[in-house]
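Example record for the data management plan.
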Amino acid sequence: MTETESIAYDVVVLGAGPVGENVADRTRAAGLSTAIVESELVGGECSYWACMPSKALLRPVIAQADARRLPGLSQAVQGPLDAAAVLARRDYFTSHWKDDGQVGWLDGIGADLYRGHGRLAGPRTVTVTGPDGTVRTLTARHAVAVATGTGAALPDLPGLAEVRPWTSREATSAEAAPGRLVVVGGGVVATEMATAWQALGSRVTLLVRGKGLLNRMEPFAGELIAEALTAAGVDVRTGTSVESVTRENGTVVVVTGQGDRIEADEILFATGRVPRTEDIGLDTVGLAPGSWLTVDDSLRVTGSQWLYAVGDVNHRALLTHQGKYQARIAGAAIAARASGVPLLETDPWGAHAATADHSAVPQVVFTDPEAAAVGLSLAEAEQAGRRVRAVDVEFSSVAGAGLYGDDYRGKARLVVDLEREILLGVTFVGPGVGELIHSATVAVAGEVPVSRLWHAVPSYPTLSEVWLRLLEAYRDN
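Corresponding structural encoding:
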């Protein structure tokens, strides 16, 4: 191991995924010198093992499902998907797991990239151990931002490592569809990967410990998606735990808590996420290794004047778009403090406050049908003590839904704060609804009064006309 001299920067960022890249972009735009450290591929989980490859796998699946709902077109798309072509397109969108383009982008903004394992080594200090064992020490005049993301959480099952289970990484980067796939979990990764691999030729069994799917959304979202997965051929088993997993002569053998034995070629565990903070030197600054990092609304770690935690590691909203939003807030806050601004704009919706994390987090689940939601569910609003009313509408009442495809099934819900008459939450379930959610995000984040929304006229005949039906239902009942 060779040690080199210390190099000083204004800001040091740990992690060059989308979140770290955006912190670097904002601090560089403010004129601060910035170093960014990455141990894997620049672009991070989202670019190579999550958002981009998963959506590349799912897009042909959804397009085929939409086409099959249209007489005149359905007859032309009755055959199976060309799995090899779908996987090749997935590989294109991951840049074949090469990061040259994203490295070039970092060069373009003037951030210095250090490849290797970065660890805190005391206040405002980061050591980087490179692939050749060389250790560099980086010091930060103003801030260190931790943007190391999360990894897959695996259950504590004896012998699981020997089984070589899939996590989200293997599920999005597999070179071929397994003949039989068991998916354990009921959340976004589980439902999306069950959707993708079933359509690409796998016989999928989905094991869900709880009562249903997508338990953080309105109940009808999970119900409609479970029905659709079952209709597509997925064996959906709720209330089912995994007691043991072994691999015998290449075959995965799963025994459930109900005593069922299931054989498969691969098993995917989509059972949550853990922060990648185990070996980044948190102990050197008085924090617990492996912990989630608690932050204020400027994304500064509680009790620190210089350490920031941005994106998944702070556990506020484990979504790429929300992490990038946080990065823009953190970059602005770091720059403002570095320039000596005496008072940051940290009031709700201020330039240095990640307020949307509390009230207006959007998410889309790219299954068939899609599920999209922003803000609070009815149950969350009631648990928070808000006086609310839920308004539900079936998409069958919307002309655009029928035009979108025959037998269109979907549902929408508004959660209305009755004291202020603003929207606290909106949920859409149905084909194509992912493109509706930003209008709902604007309404929730902007706290637009229902009376004003009445004058936001949706175009006819589009899916957006569901807004008119929802507002009519609120007004007339």
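Summary line stored alongside the record: The two ends are 73 Å apart (CA to CA).
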